[in-house]
Amino acid sequence: MSLLYQKQNQEIRPGVHLIQDVNASNSAMKYTAVKVLALDANASYDETLGDFEAGIVVLAGKVTVTADQQRFEGIGQRQSVFDKIPTDSVYVGTGLSFGITAQTAAKILIAYSPTTTSFPVRLLKGDIHQIEHRGKYQNKRLVQNILPDDLPFADKLLLVEVYTDSGNWSSYPPHRHDHDNLPTESLLEEIYYHEMQPKQGFVFQRVYTDDHSLDETMTVQNQDVVIVPKGYHPVGVPDGYDSYYLNIMAGPTRVWHFHNAPEHAWIIDRK
Ligand SMILES: O=C[C@H](O)[C@@H](O)[C@H](O)CC(=O)O
């Protein structure tokens, strides 16, 4: 089963276009799933969660989200992910229904993780995001944490968005988090939702294990998804293009402890 899911564009309801739908029924993922929707202005989407928690991220545009008798109007902080403005998200706990109505044309990512433990519905305003500038030389990247492990607002889900400019690498040096060996390393599956600027661009992403029993290098295009059931997962961005990806991570324990590939760890120590 390939790790790469190319974008689709299927109108599933009037004005609601399904761009991505990756879950346990069509992937190797057990702890994570994702939908990406493009909504025309005034279009609506609703869903009832079973034993899943969800993170609704307003990638672009302005929407109103309702869940559990709460209503969050006019959320969303940017017209494009490449505005590099932290956006708003809504956490919805298990068993609840939610609705999304687009006030402008909008793009929504819904991240899911199976659980029977529910946390309160919560608006995660963009201005609470912890911003990080990681890396040096040609592995500089901007990280906007949406739902990091030090925010105790979810049972399993971790959400983060990463910007990697032209000619740089990210998720690099290669690291993995596929061993349930805390405190040294946590086991977290990971989903990448990618966007490119300009849109015709691509990135290379390699997903591989120490024994190379899994070793897949992919050409990833705008709005593609890459799943990382295990292994290292570096991303390289060609000259002239900028990369965005949103990561969904989840596993047995909601903490992000990763292990750098030892042969490449020297990259971090350069002066
Ligand atoms: O494991 C996390 C993901 O690989 C990315 O979020 C990565 O950490 C981003 C980066 O620091 O390059």
UniProtKB/TrEMBL annotation:
Q: Which UniProt keywords apply?
A: Isomerase
A molecular function (GO) held by this record is:
5-deoxy-D-glucuronate isomerase activity
Superkingdom: Bacteria
Name recorded for this polypeptide: 5-deoxy-glucuronate isomerase
Q: In which pathway does it act?
A: Polyol metabolism; myo-inositol degradation into acetyl-CoA; acetyl-CoA from myo-inositol: step 4/7
According to its UniProt record, which protein family does this protein belong to?
A: Belongs to the isomerase IolB family.
Please name the gene that encodes this protein: iolB
**Described function:** Involved in the isomerization of 5-deoxy-glucuronate (5DG) to 5-dehydro-2-deoxy-D-gluconate (DKG or 2-deoxy-5-keto-D-gluconate).
Give the enzyme's main class according to its UniProt record, as a single word. isomerase
Q: Name one Pfam family in it.
A: KduI
Q: What is its EC number?
A: 5.3.1.30
Q: Which PANTHER family match?
A: 5-DEOXY-GLUCURONATE ISOMERASE
User: Which NCBIfam families does the entry mention?
Assistant: myo_inos_iolB
By its UniProt entry, which InterPro entries does this protein fall under?
Deoxy-glucuronate_isom_IolB, IolB_Bacilli, KduI/IolB_isomerase, RmlC-like_jellyroll, RmlC_Cupin_sf
User: So what does this thing catalyse?
Assistant: 5-deoxy-D-glucuronate = 5-dehydro-2-deoxy-D-gluconate
